[in-house]
Design brief:
Elements (H helix, E strand, L loop, with lengths): L1 E4 L12 E3 L2 H8 L5 E3 L2 H29 L6 E5 L7 E6 L1 H10 L9 E2 L4 E3 L1 E10 L2 E10 L2 H8 L4 H47 L10
Parallel strand pairs: 4-9
Antiparallel strand pairs: 1-2, 1-3, 5-7, 6-8, 8-9
């Protein structure tokens, strides 16, 4: 389907561009959200007649978005969730969760401005894009952890899962090293004992045998 874009759409074009898109994308997203018009002759005339106003309104929204971006860009929010020892969440973090967390931090955005291709399903610090306007986007950090203490560690750049696995592996590695050391020491000990045993045997062989009492 051919449509006339009423605003910039990423990877498609800018205001006034006539582009060809899949029918489903046009019907389910572009047209109902008033981001485009069907590219027929009537709509082309309507668009050209209102082009100046459409571009002016877009510029005003862009200016407002740029001002609002100062309260959002670079924000970090913490979300405490239950998760397994491998870091997989029992559930997920959605766009709505991020909106609510940002609001607590004094940054107001709408759910449809959160660009989240799929829900967050593991702990860690995740960069999430927030599109305040088709031409204005910022990034926020979403720190998902199992406890406030773990969130603080992640904020410092520490990979808590890797650290946990290292701590668990340390005793096992120490035991293996101890066993290996014992195995290496055993042949050496045997080698040290061998000359002593040989010397003892030689001494015993050199001693005269005692005569039987009835022969003395």
């Amino acid at each position: 389907m051919e449509v006339i874009l009423l605003e910039r759409v990423e990877k498609l074009g800018g205001i006034g561009d006539v582009v060809t898109v899949k029918n489903g994308f046009a019907r389910n997203f572009l047209l109902p959200n008033k981001k485009a018009l069907r590219a027929n002759e009537a709509n082309k005339k309507v668009f050209e007649a209102n082009r100046a106003k459409i571009e002016s309104d877009n510029a005003d929204r862009r200016t407002d978005a740029e001002k609002a971006s100062k309260d959002v860009d670079g924000k970090t929010v913490k979300l405490i969730r239950q998760a397994s020892n491998t870091g997989q969440l029992y559930g997920s973090v959605s766009a709505r969760d991020i909106v609510e967390a940002l609001e607590v931090e004094g940054a107001k955005v709408s759910k449809n401005q959160i660009v989240l291709n799929r829900p967050i399903k593991n702990i860690g610090v995740h960069d999430v894009k927030v599109a305040l306007h088709p031409e204005v986007a910022v990034t926020v950090k979403v720190n998902v952890a199992r406890s406030p203490e773990e969130a603080d560690l992640q904020a410092q750049g520490i990979d808590v899962l890797a650290t946990m696995f290292e701590d668990e592996a340390a005793p096992a590695a120490e035991e293996l090293n101890s066993e290996a050391a014992e195995e290496e020491a055993a042949p050496a000990a045997e080698a040290e004992e061998a000359p002593v045993a040989a010397e003892t045997a030689a001494e015993e062989a050199s001693e005269p045998a005692e005569a039987p009492e009835d022969e003395q």
